[in-house]
Amino acid sequence: MTAVFPDLKDTSVFITGGGSGIGAFLTDGFLNQGAKVAFVGRSDATEFCDEMEQKHGARPLFVQCDITDIPALQNAMGQAAQAHGPITTLVNNAANDKRHTTEEVTEDFWDWSQAINLKAYFFACQAVIPGMRAAGGGSIINFTSISYMMGNTGYPAYTTANSGINGMTRSLAREFGPDKIRVNALAPGWVLTQKQKDMWVTEEGLAAHLDRQCLKDPLEPDDIVGGTLFLASKASKMMTGQALVIDGGVVVTG
């Protein structure tokens, strides 16, 4: 733990995809701050919850669901609020960056991609607004990506959703600022999760990407935790409608 945010202790945090990849590190990071964490994911996370309970002495609440099933997602968020109190930090983290070309995209694939990467984000935000308003404020953190900033090829439906997340973030920040609800985006660079290593990382591709970074170390999932905690805490209490980029300096070099 590199920083302590005392105001996060005992707060109610909800993370989508909080049992694997970057999300698992976020769950760990918030538990380390003493927060009460609930998360959803498609795969069973019992073993991960056991690990977190042993490490922190507090067990995260896991509800298994597919975030594209909006009623199931809303129900899971209701369970989290009932168990931990009104959700005052929402982290929309779950996403799917499946590679595809423009010419092979079908209408069904397009709808699936937007459902995971954009639609679920909106309805998760919608679901927490009443509780945050009643609690006197809160922080919503929408994970996007630098992919759309770079104009990357290889996943146009995904980069479209990434860009949409930023537009949504700004609009919600404006709409709910009077309620002291802050809405920010967080754009990681190429974070070397196990999934990325298994499916997309090649020696040549990684070398080319690192060459574009100002900082030459590969990004690890833990590198994203500190920025997320900062956006959740009152340390960033006058920051909203912004996109925090954690990418080792790729987008400044183009």
Description of the structure:
The protein is an alpha/beta fold. The protein has a single domain (6-246), classed as Rossmann fold (3-Layer(aba) Sandwich). Helix content is 46%, strand content 15%. The chain has helices at residues 21-32, 46-56, 70-84, 107-135, 147-150, 156-176, 194-199, 203-212, 225-232; strands spanning 12-16, 36-41, 61-64, 89-92, 138-143, 181-188, 243-246. It has a seven-stranded parallel sheet with strand order 3-2-1-4-5-6-7, with helices on both faces. Helix 1 (21-32) crosses helix 9. The two termini are 32 Å apart.
How would you concisely characterize the structure shown here?
The protein has 254 residues and is of the alpha/beta class.
How is the topology of this model organized?
Elements (H helix, E strand, L loop, with lengths): L11 E5 L4 H12 L3 E6 L4 H11 L4 E4 L5 H15 L4 E4 L14 H29 L2 E6 L3 H4 L5 H21 L4 E8 L5 H6 L3 H10 L12 H8 L10 E4 L8
Parallel strand pairs: 1-2, 1-4, 2-3, 4-5, 5-6, 6-7
Helix pairs in contact: 1-9, 3-4, 4-6
